[in-house]
Amino acid sequence: MLSKRNLKNVIKWPLGLLALMWVVFVIDYYLTGGLLSAYYGLHTRELAGVPGIVLSPFFHGSWGHLLSNSVPFISLTGLLVFFYPRLWPRVLASLWIGTGALVWVLGRHVTHIGASGVVYALAAFLAFSGIFRRDFRAVAVSLLVLFYYGGMIVGILPGQEGVSWESHLLGLVMGIFGAYVYRSELEEHEVKARQKKITRETRKKEPFLKEDAFNKTKKERENEAFWEKLKELSERERLKR
To answer: What residues form the membrane-spanning segments (predicted)?
Structure first.
C-alpha cells in the first residue's frame, strides 16, 4: 500500500528536481548567456569539469533541449520513487553520479550538458531491474518502460549533430549495471513475499496420529512375544523336571 510519505516523495522529488532544472536554465539562458553551462558543464578529463559530473544535468542548451528531457525525466523519476520507495535515493544518486563519471572519463572532448544521460540511466534501471529481480511489480514496470521508451535506443548511435550520444550510451550502461548491483536490495513487499514463501516451505503439517503411534504398538507386540517365549521356556523346564 502506498504510504503518505511515499506519495509525498513521488510528487516532491521529481517535480522539485525538474523545477530546479528549469530555474537553472532560465538563469543561464537569459541572464548569463550560457556562461554557467560553459563553466560548470561536464568537460571530459579536465579537473575543471569534475563539478559537471553532478551539475551538468541541470544545464540545457535550448528550450527544445530542456522540454525533450523534462517529460521522460519526471515520469521515470516518479516511477523509480513510486516502485522503489526504500531504494530510490541511493539508486538515483548512483545513476546520476555514475553516468557523469563515465562520461567524464570516456566521452568526447566537448562540453556535455543536459539530463538525457540520467534519463537513459533511469530507463535502463527500471527496464532491467525486473529481469534481475524476478519480482512481479518490477517486471510490470520493466514492460511499461520498454513499451513507452524502447525507441530511445536509437539515441545511443553516434553521428547525431549536437547530441551527446556518449551520455545516452553510458547512461544505458550505468542503468543496467545499477539494476544488477541493487538486485538483492529488497523492497518491503519483496521481503514479505520471501518470508511467506519460506514459511510455506518450512511449515510441517501436523500428523493425525503421533509419529511413534505405530512404533509403540510394534514394541508392545515384541514385548508380548518375548513374554510368551519366556513362558514357553519356563513350561519346558518345568516338564523336564
So the answer is: 20-42, 62-84, 91-107, 113-132, 139-157, 163-182
What confidence tens digit (pLDDT) does each residue in 197-239 have? 777 777 655 555 555 555 556 666 666 667 777 777 776 666 5
Q: Give the count of beta carbons closer than 10 Å to the beta carbon of residue 164.
A: 23
pTM: 0.81
Q: State the Cα–Cα distance between residues 209 and 215, nearest whole angstrom.
A: 11
21 assigned to some structural domain: yes
Q: How far apart are CA 117 and CA 130, in angstroms?
A: 21
CATH of the domain at 163: 1.20.1540.10
Q: What is the pLDDT of residues 106-125, one digit of tens each?
A: 999 999 999 999 999 999 99
The closest alpha carbon to 76, from 126, 28, 114, belongs to: 126
How far apart are alpha carbons 7 and 19 in whole angstroms? 18
Domain range for residue 20? 4-193
Q: Is residue 183 part of a domain?
A: yes
